[in-house]
């Protein structure tokens, strides 16, 4: 009896729900395809409808190679998500990042806040950054690094070479990523904080740097770079339960107590002219100063470690460059471009330490992108869109850098003269560009020059061979070697 009444009702309700859902879906499709403000930007349908493909590529570290495939199909500007655009044209660096201070960083960067506090790197607010950056900027001037930092960088370079020698004569093998991280961390901390972390203290050549689990943990977070900050809170709790590891706890304690000692000394008037003292002096709180130091430790260890590790690995694979560098050291550079500079520059290009799109928000007046490779078509990119360029697409562009995967310093120099094209110089994007360019880029460069020169003077790499012939890099904000490859080198006896 009841069945007779209910069933048609239920059937009716079900069909209404189905019809309603279909209508909504259709309406959404029409909106996405025809009236969404980005409907005129080329890209595949599934990217237009949802951010999930972009989030998945972020997690898997395939964001930039996927963007490259989209560019191959759709041209110089493509849609990565409903509100996300990628451009593979070096001509767009200036308007997005440089002119008039560049566009603001996208809120995505807040996923790299530490303990809920914004860092010099993570903040999207130019004024917040300006106060802190202005306070510490004098430390990062090349002239100051070359005068006040010379002794520290040379000491660290000596330790770097000594560690290689010890390995060569001892266990005959060493991990270049670990070694390069030690050098980067000690050089940075010794100069910037006025007190070396102690990365080479008690180092026997086989164990892992004590700061590594800490640094790796932060690096692992770049898998969630594009995830909103409030969700990250849950992720952190989740990761904490997946990674409940003693190594990480010990490492964090070590880093934190080192940073605490820096801040304590600065509060008592020590550490004149250091990063931490300069921040405290302009009224930055003690808690935030600690966070800024922790961020500097991550930034000063992970990306430069990868870059230096890969550079040395490439030199081991192609020892003719080490010999060339050694000749140059005795004969002096011939012209306006040394092989040393070319080598570091090529390391800069090939390491792809930060390979992904550096997203910026189009300002309220919108922005019109005109591809620099000609063609009459322009694209209006509306206010609020997250737009960006990646080092991956620029550094691996075959037109600008023929055989882009090849490590070839000679593409920059011939007979001591620079042979770089305008595009080659323009499209180096290792540190970003413009007002939000990496604040410590001059230090990172000087660290490279000092250690590579010292390496060339020594004969320590003679007879060394790489253990893995090929390495594959994941495309996270900070890159990491994919599982199954390493940067170990070995000396045959
Ligand atoms: C490395 O790349 C940056 C651009 O991100 C550039 O400013 C810097 O001069 C380069 N350094 C060298 C030695 O080529
Ligand atoms: C390489 O860069 C040029 C502009 O410098 C651009 O026209 C071209 O589309 C880029 N190619 C790829 C594959 O990204
Ligand atoms: C270096 O010298 C070459 C040839 O003399 C010249 O074409 C080039 O512009 C110079 N580059 C710089 C950066 O001075």
TrEMBL record:
UniProt similarity note: Belongs to the cytochrome P450 family.
Keywords: Heme, Iron, Membrane, Metal-binding, Monooxygenase, Oxidoreductase, Transmembrane, Transmembrane helix
The organism's place on the tree of life at top rank: Eukaryota
Protein name listed in UniProt: Cytochrome P450
SUPFAM superfamilies (UniProt xref): Cytochrome P450
Cofactor: heme
Residues annotated for heme binding in this entry: 438
Molecular function terms, GO-annotated: heme binding; iron ion binding; monooxygenase activity; oxidoreductase activity, acting on paired donors, with incorporation or reduction of molecular oxygen
TM region positions: 12-34
């Amino acid at each position: 009896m009841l069945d007779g009444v209910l069933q048609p009702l239920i059937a009716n309700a079900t069909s209404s729900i189905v019809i309603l859902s279909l209508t909504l879906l259709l309406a959404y499709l029409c909106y996405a395809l025809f009236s969404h403000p980005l409907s005129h930007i080329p890209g595949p349908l599934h990217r237009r409808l949802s951010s999930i493909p972009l989030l998945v590529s972020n997690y898997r570290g395939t964001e930039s190679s996927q963007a490259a495939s989209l560019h191959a199909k759709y041209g110089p500007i493509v849609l990565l998500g409903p509100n996300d655009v990628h451009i593979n044209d070096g001509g767009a660096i200036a308007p997005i990042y440089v002119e008039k201070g560049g566009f603001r960083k996208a809120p995505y960067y807040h996923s790299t806040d530490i303990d809920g506090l914004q860092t010099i790197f993570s903040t999207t607010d130019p004024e917040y950054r300006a106060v802190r950056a202005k306070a510490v900027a004098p430390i990062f001037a090349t002239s100051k690094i070359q005068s006040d930092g010379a002794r520290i960088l040379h000491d660290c370079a000596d330790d770097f070479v000594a560690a290689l020698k010890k390995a060569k004569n001892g266990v005959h093998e060493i991990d270049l990523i670990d070694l390069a991280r030690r050098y980067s961390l000690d050089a940075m901390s010794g100069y910037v904080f006025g007190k070396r972390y102690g990365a080479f203290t008690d180092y026997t050549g086989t164990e892992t740097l004590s700061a590594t689990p800490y640094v790796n943990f932060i690096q692992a977070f770049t898998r969630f770079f594009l995830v909103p900050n409030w969700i990250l809170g849950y992720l952190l709790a989740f990761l904490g339960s997946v990674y409940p590891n003693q190594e990480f706890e010990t490492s964090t304690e070590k880093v934190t107590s080192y940073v605490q000692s820096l801040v304590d000394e600065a509060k008592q008037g020590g550490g004149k002219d250091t990063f931490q003292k300069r921040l405290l002096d302009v009224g930055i709180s003690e808690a935030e100063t600690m966070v800024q130091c922790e961020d500097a430790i991550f930034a000063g260890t992970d990306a430069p470690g990868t870059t230096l590790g890969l550079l040395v690995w490439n030199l081991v694979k192609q020892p003719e460059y080490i010999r060339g560098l050694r000749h140059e050291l005795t004969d002096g550079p011939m012209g306006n471009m040394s092989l040393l500079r070319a080598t570091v520059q090529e390391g800069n290009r090939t390491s792809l330490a930060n390979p992904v799109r550096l997203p910026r928000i189009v300002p309220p007046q919108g922005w019109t992108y005109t591809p620099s490779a000609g063609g009459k078509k322009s694209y209006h990119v509306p206010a609020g869109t997250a737009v960006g360029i990646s080092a991956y697409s620029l550094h691996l562009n075959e037109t600008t850098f023929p055989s882009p995967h090849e490590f070839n310093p000679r593409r920059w120099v011939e007979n001591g003269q620079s042979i770089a094209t305008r595009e080659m110089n323009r499209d180096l994007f290792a540190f970003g560009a413009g007002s939000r360019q990496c604040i410590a880029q001059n230090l990172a460069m000087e660290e490279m020059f000092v250690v590579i020169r010292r390496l060339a003077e020594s004969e320590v790499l003679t007879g060394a061979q790489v253990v893995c012939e090929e390495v594959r890099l994941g495309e996270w904000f900070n890159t990491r070697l994919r599982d199954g490859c390493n940067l170990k080198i070995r000396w045959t006896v």
